Amino acid sequence: MTKTKITIKTSDKVEVTRGQARAIGEGMKFYLKMADAEPERVNALTKGDKKEFARLQFVGKHFVIKIGDVEPWTGLFDPLNSMSAYDLNKAILKGYIVKGEE
């Protein structure tokens, strides 16, 4: 008898709270504005890819916060403090689903 392997595909998207979703959106806006203001850095780091530059800056800052070298996020970005840098990166790259919504 042959065994059949069943694989259930789940979404690659990260599940986030409403606060985290808002913070991710606002964070990307902030770092995209930084990319517009610093085209030389964007070209040096990402060959002109502003979205990639913004992602790297945002996730890099979050990583430094998570390891304790910088004070945690405050205000609008406070909900990100409970999120790992890996999940933030994945949410930006693959998208996210707000908990309790489809």
List the main descriptive attributes of the protein structure presented here.
4 helices
Q: Report mean pLDDT, rounded to a whole number.
A: 91
How does the helix and strand content classify structurally?
mainly alpha
Order of SSEs, N→C?
EHHHHE
Note poorly predicted spans: none
Biggest pleated sheet: 2 strands, parallel
Oligomer: single chain
Determine the N-to-C terminus distance: 40 Å
Number of helical elements: 4
Q: Strand tally, please?
A: 2
Shape, per Cα inertia axes: globular
Strand order of the largest sheet: 1-2
Please tell me how large the radius of gyration is.
17 Å
Helix percentage range? 40-55%
Number of separate domains: 1
Beta content: 5-15%
What does this structure look like?
The chain has one domain. The longest helix has 20 residues, at 18-37. The chain is globular, with a radius of gyration of 17 Å. The chain is 54% helix and 6% strand. The model has no long low-confidence stretch (mean pLDDT 91). It has 102 residues and is mainly alpha-helical. Strands 1-2 form a two-stranded parallel sheet.
Give a brief description:
With 102 residues, this protein is mainly alpha-helical.
Mind sketching the topology for me?
Blueprint: E1 14-16, H1 18-37, H2 39-46, H3 50-66, H4 85-94, E2 96-98
